[in-house]
Specification:
The complex is a heterodimer of chains A (324) and B (121). Chain A is mainly beta. In chain A, the strands form six sheets. In chain A, strands 1, 2, 3, 4, 5, 6, 16, 17, 21, 22, 23 and 24 form a twelve-stranded mixed sheet that branches. Chain A has a three-stranded mixed sheet with strand order 10-15-14, with helices on one face. A three-stranded mixed sheet of chain A has the order 19-18-20, covered by helices on one side. Chain A is flat and about 65 Å long. The two termini of chain A are 35 Å apart. With 121 residues, chain B is mainly beta. Chain B contains one helix and eight strands; from the N terminus they run E-E-E-E-E-H-E-E-E. A six-stranded antiparallel barrel of chain B has the order 1-2-5-8-7-6. In chain B, strand 3 and strand 4 form a beta hairpin. The chains are: A mainly beta (324), B mainly beta (121). At the A-B interface, strand 1, strand 17 and strand 24 of A face strand 3 and strand 4 of B. Strand 1 of chain A pairs parallel with strand 4 of chain B.
Chain lengths: 324, 121
């Protein structure tokens, strides 16, 4: 019989009752919900969360307090937190002079994203991108106004099928990160039902619901492009279409590039495993795991797409979604 | 044989005491496992129950009103007293014609059966 004593460190709280940490590939920010007996935290305070066992804990979150709720007669606090990208999600771009909005010309993607992050007060940033893509190279600059910075950033990154995210230490990354093996990526974890030590429940599904084998791009001033391919997972001659429409696409070459990048990313069957495992704070999104369960016919390497940590009265568990 | 204990300075003739101190575990049962995994959540405060007879309205009122308070319990094993939180108080009036237990009080004073749940502090 294995007995593990839960252990945690959370900034500024006393007598933790329950904590949930939600990390997901498709979420703009990582969220934390804490229930505790007392706290010194107020809105805007920095917070870090370490979870694990008496044998060791791991940092799973760095961010800021967004709301503090105190309830009676139970007399407990509920605190919600989000990572640093919440600043970009909240910060609203509204130029004092509407004739002079945020504007850039002939700028690399990574530099444009950096400028948008800086505009929202985010400076801890790094990038690793495989292509040189420039914006505002046509007759007009790329401009943003009357939207929040995160929406502006995601307009750019979604056009290229790239991702912006904050890691567990609070550093923001720009990467070409897809929800599947992009080639030669190795697994950091193994989840195998035959060991009887990890998986509490699991399920497997496949779906063509999110498959898009035709991409149509509408840009500025009538610029347009499209890309398509036959899919073996759809009826012959049938196309499921996605439209990307934004005025910041201002050249035909950029429109073509956007269409082909998104076709490569979206023309895929979605295979998904849902797992609940015994909590391991080192398990995180954007890594890979080998999953073996002969009962549902699953084996091989899978991308960890979502991790929801539940730490409290029911022990420490993680609900995972893995994709390939 | 009952012991005369004092709770908040009031006499109670205790004839029953029980308690528990259950550690709080979550049991996880992985697929294919041959044994469970236990996550120790907490080690809660011990709780013990005390039952006895209370003679007279004065002692009864004092004891009845201890619910929710932190007060002192003097027992035969802890004559110096210990601090306890009174989590619960229940009582029944006993229909006795006379009491002869407490000779300092009249023989026709009300008599009660009271029980408490206490948590040492």
């Amino acid at each position: 019989m294995a007995v593990q004593t839960l252990s945690y460190t959370v900034t500024g709280i006393t007598n933790l009752t329950d904590i949930q940490v939600i990390e997901a590939h498709n979420n703009s920010v990582t969220q934390v919900i804490i229930t505790c007996e007392s706290t010194s935290l107020t809105v805007g305070d920095s917070i870090t969360v370490h979870l694990g066992y008496s044998t060791g804990t791991t940092k799973v979150f760095t961010g800021y307090v967004r709301t503090v709720l105190q309830s009676y007669p139970v007399g407990e606090y509920t605190i919600t937190c989000e990572d640093v990208l919440a600043k970009a999600a909240i910060h609203y771009m509204a130029a004092a002079d509407p004739e002079n909005p945020f504007s850039r010309s002939n700028i690399l993607t990574q530099d444009l994203v950096e400028d948008l992050l800086n505009d929202a007060g985010i400076t801890n940033y790094t990038h690793s991108v495989p292509l040189t893509v420039r914006w505002g190279t046509g007759s007009v600059p790329v401009e943003f106004n009357l939207i929040n910075n995160m929406t502006a950033i995601e307009t750019i990154t979604k056009a290229l099928a790239w991702k912006v995210f904050a890691d567990r230490d609070g550093q923001v990354h720009l990467e070409d990160r897809k929800a599947y093996d992009m080639g030669g990526e190795s697994a950091s974890f193994t989840f195998d039902t035959s060991t009887g030590t990890t998986i509490l429940n699991d399920s497997y599904s496949t779906s063509a619901e999110n498959l898009r084998n035709r991409i149509v791009v509408y840009g500025n001033g009538g610029i347009h492009a499209s890309a398509s391919a036959v899919s073996p997972h759809l009826p012959s001659g049938f196309y499921q279409t996605a439209v990307i429409a934004t005025p910041i696409i201002d050249t035909s070459s950029l429109a073509n590039q956007v269409a082909s990048l998104n076709l490569a990313a979206m023309n895929r069957l979605t295979e998904q495993i849902s797992l609940t495992i015994v909590g391991n704070p080192d398990v995180r999104i954007r890594t890979f795991a080998n999953v073996i369960d002969s009962r549902i016919g699953v084996s091989g390497k899978w991308y960890i797409y979502r991790v929801e940590h539940s730490f409290g009265d029911m022990g420490y568990k993680q609900s995972l979604i893995l994709t390939r | 044989m009952a012991s005369i204990w004092k709770l908040a300075g009031a006499d109670i003739y205790v004839d029953k005491q029980s308690g528990d101190k259950p550690p709080h575990f979550a049991e996880l049962r992985p697929i294919g496992s041959t044994s469970s995994i236990f996550h120790e959540i907490s080690n809660p405060t011990e709780a013990f129950a005390m039952e006895g007879t209370v003679i007279g309205e004065t002692f009864f009122t004092t004891l009845r009103d201890t619910g929710g308070d932190v007060t002192t319990l003097i027992t035969d094993l802890v004559p110096g007293g210990m601090s306890v939180f009174v989590e619960n108080v229940t009582y029944d009036r006993l229909n006795y014609y006379k009491q002869t237990v407490d000779t300092a009080q009249a023989d026709d004073v009300p008599t009660y059966r009271m029980s408490f749940v206490l948590r040492p502090q």
